Amino acid sequence: MADHSGAVTSASRRERGVKFWRVTRRVCQLAATIDISFFFLFLFLGSPILAWINVASVAMYTAAYYAINRRQNRLAIALIWSEVIIHSALGTLMIGWESGFHYYLLMFIPTVCISSVRPGTIISLIVVLWGYYIGLDILMWFMEPFQPIPSGALLGVHLFNLSVVFAMFAYLSFFYMRMVVSAQRKLQRLATVDSLTGLLNRRHGSDLAENEIARFRRVGHPVAFMLLDVDHFKSFNDQFGHGTGDAILTEIGRLIPAQLRVQDIAARWGGEEFLVILPDTKIESALASAERIRVALRSNDWKQATGESIDVTISVGVSEVCANDDLASVISRADRALYRGKAGGRNRVEQEGELQR
Ligand SMILES: Nc1nc2c(ncn2[C@@H]2O[C@H](COP(=O)(O)OP(=O)(O)OP(=O)(O)O)[C@@H](O)[C@H]2O)c(=O)[nH]1
């Protein structure tokens, strides 16, 4: 089987990138809105310089927003970094460390970590940020702010800045958590599901089959197995092409579970071979299920599913787990029954040991 892991990794990286830029665009909108409210607040407080700094900030966030829309991502990042670095420094220098403008610098830590840059770059950026933050802190120990505002207003600005940074941290953490959970789900799906049929893949099917055999040993509830194989499948490939062959397998992946109970487990076992595990099922009921599947395939509208006027049939071998069975032995009995079905003319269900139909 071809190794698609490289393609999968780059696809998930691309998707992570798309989400990252979507969030960054939202952050630009939010930051611009906050800066507009700061403009009016500082005008009200009689600090026109600080008010006009916020106008410049709104312009930078708007430019960054449109840069992301035009996929000029480097420009967008440069604008956002510059805005936060300059604005937090100017706010601190003008009205003091207590203004809390420096908290915005801390936002870079999660932002840098969830962007797609290399670990070495992340560490360097965080070290530079740390130096800048500490430098600003030390500077403010030795100098008075250029344009102090009344202490009540200073407290208000401090609390507002602190709250915004809290909210942004929460938002980024939530976004990151959602990204991790969705990546985990995708990986789990890739590791357990057959991409063509949507059924479980062989490895996961084997694991669940082993579990059922272990459960049989523990509690003694019956477990039945079916091996299903498409008849003359090669001829469909040869006559109509691999695409039609794939469409047949996909349709079978839809038809088999439709005939099963929720607790039954269907897996793609090989190319055109499927395994069904029926927990709490004696062989008689398993034969009835197998027969239902056989009839459902036989009477399916294959023209609609594949675009070709074809008849698709399957042969099925059924076995039931007995004492001292392992996966190999119970599958091998189903396989022998399946082989008898093929030898007996195909399109039939066979039980281990004796002829069923
Ligand atoms: N289109 C398609 N073909 C597959 C896939 N996996 C396996 N095959 C083909 O399935 C065919 C299986 O052929 P055979 O093992 O000879 O079996 P058959 O033609 O079904 O004959 P019987 O089982 O004896 O009825 C081979 O030609 C494989 O190339 C797949 O994912 N897609």
TrEMBL record:
It holds the Pfam family GGDEF. The chain crosses the membrane at residues 23-43, 49-68, 75-95, 101-117, 122-143, 155-177. One of its GO terms (molecular function) is diguanylate cyclase activity. It catalyses: 2 GTP = 3',3'-c-di-GMP + 2 diphosphate. It comes from the Bacteria. PROSITE patterns: GGDEF (PS50887). Gene3D superfamilies: 3.30.70.270. Its EC number is 2.7.7.65. CDD domains: GGDEF (cd01949). Residues 221-354 form the GGDEF domain. SMART domains: GGDEF. InterPro entries: Diguanylate_Cyclase (IPR050469), GGDEF_dom (IPR000160), Nucleotide_cyclase (IPR029787), Rev_trsase/Diguanyl_cyclase (IPR043128). The keyword Transmembrane applies. Keywords: Membrane, Nucleotidyltransferase, Transferase, Transmembrane, Transmembrane helix. NCBIfam families: GGDEF. This is diguanylate cyclase.
